[in-house]
Design brief:
Blueprint (H helix, E strand, L loop, with lengths): L1 E6 L29 E5 L7 H14 L4 E6 L5 H9 L6 E5 H10 L19 H6 L1 E2 L2 E2 L2 E2 L6 E5 L10 H11 L1 E2 L5 E6 L11 H7 L16 H15 L11 H9 L3 E6 L4 H8 L4 E4 L14 E2 L2 E5 L2 H4 L3 H14 L2 H11 L6 H9 L3 H12 L2 E2 L10 H13 L4 H18 L6
Parallel strand pairs: 1-2, 1-3, 2-4, 10-11, 13-15
Antiparallel strand pairs: 4-14, 5-6, 7-14, 8-11, 8-12, 9-10
């Protein structure tokens, strides 16, 4: 059997931009067929991919006669996946974020693994990691790690982690250096409100007393808390002058921090090895995001995982043997050995309890910072279909806000209106 791995540009764990729609009759599709190859679409970062590649070789060795070929392709997106699924050519194994997969599962494209694996198969994992791949009691994925963002700081510039946002802004001001022409030699902080599609915004939202959704799944973003959170984050560049204006790419703050030009960023474990290798382990600090001084509340970033998901046979065209082999491969990727390799390669925090406990026992300071954030001051990633309607409106409205064409209030109102409109159109609960 051949495992075809589609190499794609990494998107970290950030949300994918699309509008999902329930597709009645999908499971009745038929007449599909394909070769005896496991196809994989993956979303690993550059530091994670070596461990993934090694895992494939290990899987080959453990399963004689199977080989691996690599095919380059563009970044996975719901539109690409859905187009492939409707022609029965979706990947057998999809590796990505839970909100991406959650929407596809809602649409009927991904298999309910609870129908194919016994409860004992999920027992080794952290309960919170399994919950991230669970909808209404159905487990639709196997978690490969646990992740989210925390505050990462350069100890050469800011020796001690600030505990509240007033301290954070002042610490950042103390190290910011701007030339007479307006260029930043050193930025105290880079957040980039328009740089990540909205993935980090929910943390500040909760810090200002807001929430993403009401208990019934309706978006709750046209609020004073939402406006205050957005204004606060944008002020880093416009009012506080601690951040260069116009940061719209994650690579900007990643590269600048690695070069020692930034005091504070907000990033995840998938990039930590890059920073440690560049600056030295003793110079990289990780701590929970600081308490919002105006409210006394902790920011709660999204906590979730990257998982391995299996397409339904009607989506991928797999025969029963190939379908079962795909599940086997996904389970191998989520094994203690592979999760350990991912930790060694990139700093990914394992989702398997035993491997997680081992990593925790190492008492690595920067990993401890992530653990403190994830398990004490985070909110579960909404893997429901409602979340998939957030990314596009955020990208559109925040771009206009940063450009100065609309106010923060108009931006959040626009996100709310767009989400409600699309959810109503597609009959997504509670609409």
């Amino acid at each position: 059997m051949i495992i075809v791995v589609v190499i794609v540009a990494s998107a970290g764990i950030f949300g994918y931009l699309y509008v999902t729609k329930k597709l009645p009759g999908l499971k009745s599709l038929g007449g599909c067929s394909k070769s005896t190859s496991i196809t994989v679409w993956q979303d690993f970062s550059s530091t994670e991919f070596p461990a993934f590649s090694k895992a494939i070789a290990q899987f080959e060795a453990a399963n004689p006669g199977e080989s691996v070929s690599f095919v380059n392709d563009s970044s996975p997106s719901p539109s690409n996946y859905i187009a492939a699924a409707l022609s029965c050519t979706a990947p057998d194994v999809l590796i990505g974020a839970s909100d991406f997969a959650g929407g596809l599962y809602y649409d009927g494209f991904l298999a309910n693994l609870s129908d194919y694996l016994p409860p004992s198969a999920f027992a080794p994992f952290l309960s919170s990691a399994i919950s991230d791949d669970n909808q209404s009691g159905a487990i639709f994925g196997i978690p490969l790690n646990v992740n989210g963002v925390a505050m990462i700081y350069n100890k050469l510039l800011i020796p001690t982690a600030p505990t509240n946002t007033d301290e954070m802004v002042q610490d950042a001001k103390n190290v910011t250096v701007i030339t007479p022409s307006g260029s930043f030699t050193t930025a105290g902080l880079i957040y980039g409100v328009d740089a990540d599609g909205g993935y980090r915004y929910p943390a500040w939202l909760t810090g200002f007393g807001g929430e993403m959704f009401e208990p019934n799944g309706a978006p709750d973003l046209d609020t004073a808390a939402a406006v205050n959170a957005l204004t606060f984050a944008h002020n880093f560049s416009t009012v506080d002058k601690i951040e260069p204006p116009g940061v719209t790419a994650e690579s900007t703050y990643e590269d600048e921090f690695a070069q020692g030009h930034v005091g504070i960023i907000f990033d995840g474990p998938w990039d930590i090895e890059m920073y440690v290798n560049a600056l030295g382990e003793s110079n990289v600090g990780v701590a929970p995001m600081p308490i919002v001084s105006q409210t006394g509340l902790h920011p709660l970033p999204l906590w979730g995982s990257i998982g391995a998901y299996i397409s339904t046979r009607n989506s991928s065209g797999a025969n029963p043997t190939l379908f079962n082999e795909s599940i086997k491969f996904a389970q191998f990727l989520a094994s203690p050995k592979v999760e350990g390799e991912l930790f060694n390669s990139s700093g990914d925090i394992p989702s398997i309890t035993s491997t997680f406990d081992y990593v925790k026992s190492l008492n690595i300071p920067f990993e401890n910072g992530f653990l403190d954030q994830f398990f004490n001051y985070s909110q579960p990633f909404p893997n429901t279909v409602s979340m998939t309607y957030f990314w596009d409106p955020y990208a559109t409205e925040i771009s206009d806000y940063v450009a100065g064409s609309i106010s923060a209030s108009s931006a959040m109102s626009g996100i709310q209106t767009s989400m409600v409109s699309e959810m109503t159109l597609n009959h997504v609960p509670p609409y």
